Amino acid sequence: MPLTPKRASESATEMVQVVLPNDANPLGFILGGTVMHLIDIAGAIACHRHTRSLLVTAAVDGLQFLHPIKVGDLIILNALVTCVFTTSLEVQVDVFSEETLTGRRLLTSRAYLTFVAIARDGSRVQVPPLIVETDAERRVCEEAHARRRERLKQKVQGAGA
Ligand SMILES: CC(C)(COP(=O)(O)OP(=O)(O)OC[C@H]1O[C@@H](n2cnc3c(N)ncnc32)[C@H](O)[C@@H]1OP(=O)(O)O)[C@@H](O)C(=O)NCCC(=O)NCCS
Predict the structure, then answer these.
(1) Are the C-beta atoms of residues 54 and 119 closer than 8 Å to each other?
(2) How far is CA 60 from the centre of its chain?
(3) Fewest CB within a 10 Å sphere: which of 6, 102, 131, 153?
(4) Closest ligand 1 atom to the C-alpha of 85?
């Protein structure tokens, strides 16, 4: 059956939650591991919406934490599929902090994740094409191809280590 192409906007995902004391280190900042978990979840939701298949996380590119997110702030995660390949796809997840009283927002992390679509028997599944129409979307996809080449190169180097 032919796969139905989809726009990135159809799977775009926003997750918002308040940072609670239980999520925080002794300084009152959200734990990095908690942010990584939320990034994985937000990215996976966008990719599930695009593929409607089972998925595994294959790679998370280098991740930086640019600003702390304090207890009481909102953490906002925006996930957008950037490019699809054959059985894998890349998603960009932007993380923001938002002060509840002022609305001040800061970009705190940007992550690129690759998910692979798999069937229950473990075989790989082809993913639906991504509709790429504008120059900006084409540029995003070209950049994703460049990151993919680098990632697969690093995987081969890592496997040889
Ligand atoms: C990710 C995984 C399925 C890749 O398996 P593999 O046999 O090495 O890869 P395959 O040759 O089957 O390639 C499948 C696709 O994954 C891509 N891929 C494989 N390793 C990758 C990596 N490290 N980074 C990015 N993409 C990768 C390939 O490019 C290919 O994409 P394409 O079909 O779009 O060209 C396998 O390594 C795995 O199951 N890892 C564990 C995943 C996991 O447990 N994640 C955490 C919990 S969900």
Answers:
(1) yes
(2) 8
(3) 102
(4) 34
